[in-house]
């Protein structure tokens, strides 16, 4: 006896449904196990923007001493020394800082980049500009690896008391990323 096509389809659907439900359940249970990230993948990003002093106290005098009071702090949150050769730091405008060849940051250590001129050390680098980098009202700091891949961004808006999805917490002078 031949069942009409519609009846056969319904019959097949009824037989297949429990099998599909079982396969879906197995996929839900086994899926996370099969694609669980390794312990290394679960670690925090190795280079973290920690703080930006975007409006140092006092009048903007455009003098090197005051320019150097404006700075950004980066931290190596990884477990290995990080070579920053070829890495860049940018703001929302055209300013770009390229880390000098041989720049390294040890695990747990910070590196400060000041806007003005000065002598680079292992813990402080100088952008070398004659102007301020970070806008006093709002801006975004972004770090890129040597291949140009964006690693992190930190957007701030002056006097943002609570961090939001868009902006980090700030005071009148400092963004905490």
Structural write-up:
With 177 residues, the chain is an alpha+beta fold. Helix content is 19%, strand content 29%. The protein has two helices and twelve strands, in the order H-E-H-E-E-E-E-E-E-E-E-E-E-E. The protein has helices at residues 5-34, 64-67; strands at 47-53, 71-76, 82-83, 88-90, 96-98, 104-105, 110-114, 124-126, 138-144, 150-157, 169-170, 174-176. Strands 8-7-2-1-12-11 form a six-stranded mixed beta sheet, with no helix packed on it. The longest helix has 30 residues, at 5-34. The protein is globular.
The largest β sheet comes out as:
6 strands, mixed
Poorly predicted regions: 1-11, 19-43
Tally of individual helices: 2
Order of helices and strands: HEHEEEEEEEEEEE
What is the residue-averaged pLDDT?
Answer: 82
Concise synopsis of the structure shown:
With 177 residues, the chain is an alpha+beta fold. Helix content is 19%, strand content 29%.
SSE blueprint:
Layout (H helix, E strand, L loop, with lengths): L4 H30 L12 E7 L10 H4 L3 E6 L5 E2 L4 E3 L5 E3 L5 E2 L4 E5 L9 E3 L11 E7 L5 E8 L11 E2 L3 E3 L1
Parallel strand pairs: 7-8
Antiparallel strand pairs: 1-2, 1-12, 2-7, 3-6, 4-5, 4-9, 9-10, 11-12
């Amino acid at each position: 006896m031949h069942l009409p096509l519609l009846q056969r389809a319904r019959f097949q659907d009824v037989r297949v449904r429990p099998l599909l439900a079982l396969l879906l359940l197995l996929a839900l249970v086994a899926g996370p196990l099969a694609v669980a990230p390794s312990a290394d993948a679960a670690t925090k990003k190795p280079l973290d923007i920690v703080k930006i002093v975007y409006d140092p106290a006092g009048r903007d005098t455009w003098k090197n001493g005051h320019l150097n009071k404006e700075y950004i702090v980066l931290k190596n949150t990884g477990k290995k020394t990080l070579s920053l050769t070829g890495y860049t730091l940018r703001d929302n405008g055209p300013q770009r800082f390229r880390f000098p060849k041989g720049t390294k940051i040890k695990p747990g250590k910070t590196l400060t980049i000041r806007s003005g001129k000065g002598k680079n050390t292992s813990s402080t680098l100088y952008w070398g500009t004659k102007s301020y980098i970070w806008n006093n009202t709002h801006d975004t700091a972004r770090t890129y690896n040597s291949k140009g891949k964006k690693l992190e961004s930190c957007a701030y808006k002056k006097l943002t008391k609570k961090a939001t999805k868009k902006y980090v917490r700030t005071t009148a002078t400092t963004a905490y990323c």
